[in-house]
Amino acid sequence: MKVQAEFGVWDYVVVILVLLTSSSIGLYYRFTGGRQKTVEEYLHADKNMSIYTVAISLMASFMSAITILGVSSENYSFGFQFILIYLGHLIFTPIAAYLYLPIFFKLQTTSAYEYLEMRFGKTARLATSLSYTLQMILYTGVVIYAPALALEAVTGISRLTAVLSIGLVCMFYSTIGGMKAVILTDVLQSLLMFLGVFSIIISALVAHGGFANIWKIAELGNRTDIFNFNPDPTIRHSWFSLVIGGGVLYLSLYGVNQTQIQRYLTVKDLKRAQKALWLNWPIFCLLGIATSFSGLAIYSRYKDCDPVKAGYISSMDQLMPYYVVDTMGHIPGLAGLFVAGIFSASLSTISASLNSVAAVTMEDYYKPISKYLNKPELSPKKAATLTKCMAMGFGILCLGVSFLVQHLGALLKAALTIFGAVGGPILGLFSLGMFTLTANESGSLTGLVAGMAVSMWLAFAPKPPPNPLPTSIDGCNDNNLLNNIITIQVNESDYSWLYRVSYLYNGVIGLVITFSIGYLTSIIVRQFNGIKVEDENYNPNLFIPSLSQKLILKKHDNKVFKLVNRSNSCEDFKKNDISEL
């Protein structure tokens, strides 16, 4: 039977307490310590954050409500194989920690995209930071709206109330409290995410008598197979697409994304940042696997009466809140705890986005324009105030985008697709700069445009809808249920092979095209202009550690050669200023 939404007084109390607590953390950091009077404190938390809080914040930054709702419905519909994506995260963590992260720590730039100006030029920096800004505004608007849409359908919380509650509270504490408030609230919100997901698992374990019974039900529904090693790229989920495609997406987020780089720089040194990144993986993995298993737990209840097929809810993303109201709605405050967890997942992502986009706007747009117009440099206090206003402005803009989503239904899918498709080419651009000496600005920009065009084309190309595993409505016992459900059969052969490639490969394709075309174009440009790599004067800090060391040794050898050449004897050489070396 269809569940009637009931959200009691205690449920509202729990949600309101969570929102008030998040706001109070912002107020606390506004009136303590340095009171967010400098950009350094506001954006980098004075570099004195604990590695444990930063590790949790790294996880919370991209574990949004869309992820919580989406991963559970993914496992409900397609099975448990999705957990292999966390293996990809593990494999790519050392690459992010020991190749990309040291470069950002050497430079200590507020904007990650400042690196691209140092390596290639202003155009590369501006193009990439604009891509990031547009990506985050669209994504953040969706993060605000999507859970509001799902929760409205099953809890009775109006869409307007949910959107304004999430948006305004987050704007308040992230604007006045800065990065310290963002990271600390991430810790609180992560705890609530865990509580919300585990409340579902525990209720299912109690109802079915243990883990083994839930697993057996899922096994009978063909939802436990994780051994699909088929290398065919058109298969939606396999070991290869999840590990490689998921790993590249992870690397684009944790290796070169401004949101995460800014968090790394809130600790004192590189080793602490690397530890925080390593600690992030088991935390992220634990929540991810728990959310995945919650999908199987939900399936154990609805295996004979699928709520979507029965018409009780309109979207698979509403499964988790529907289950909570259905099974725990009678317990005062428990549904509220779950909703608080969903709100928290959105809050953590939104606050991360606002703070990071404000940093990019200050460093990549405002400062270069001010310098070009010969405006005097702002005092630390005025710069911090302006950055806060930027964060507030972007918050209002994202709220506006969230209201537009309901009128542009395709935007929900489009924004999420952009989030993955843009990451691969940007990762390819950074990799060109960090891993090669040959790459130049002309080549890198050509590669970026080509990679972005192809990955976006593939992302938005008409694709056959995925075929979920079968579900039933035989056990619904609903006299009003319409049994004349029409199933539309889709013939995949009607679609081009390219259009059937798994969505997880979008980032991989963007990375490969950006890197390869960028590298080849750079060689052609160098040949045409007669510019040799050996004649370039590179900054060793702009390259991965192994390449950086070679450049340092080369400079060392050149200086020794020059000193020996201008010395008439060994005695003269000894008298030279050896400190040059």
TrEMBL record:
Localization (cell): Cell membrane
PROSITE patterns from the UniProt entry: NA_SOLUT_SYMP_3
Biological process, per Gene Ontology: sodium ion transport
Gene3D superfamilies to which the protein is assigned, alphabetical: Sodium/glucose cotransporter
Membrane topology: Multi-pass membrane protein
Principal location listed in the UniProt entry: membrane
GO molecular function, a single term: symporter activity
A single Gene Ontology CC term: plasma membrane
Keyword terms: Cell membrane, Ion transport, Membrane, Sodium, Sodium transport, Transmembrane, Transmembrane helix, Transport
Transmembrane domains' residue ranges: 12-31, 51-71, 83-105, 126-148, 160-179, 191-218, 238-256, 277-299, 334-362, 383-405, 411-430, 442-460, 503-525
PANTHER family: LD47995P-RELATED, SODIUM-COUPLED MONOCARBOXYLATE TRANSPORTER
Similarity annotation: Belongs to the sodium:solute symporter (SSF) (TC 2.A.21) family.
Alphabetized NCBIfam families for the sequence: sss
Record-given protein name: Sodium-dependent multivitamin transporter
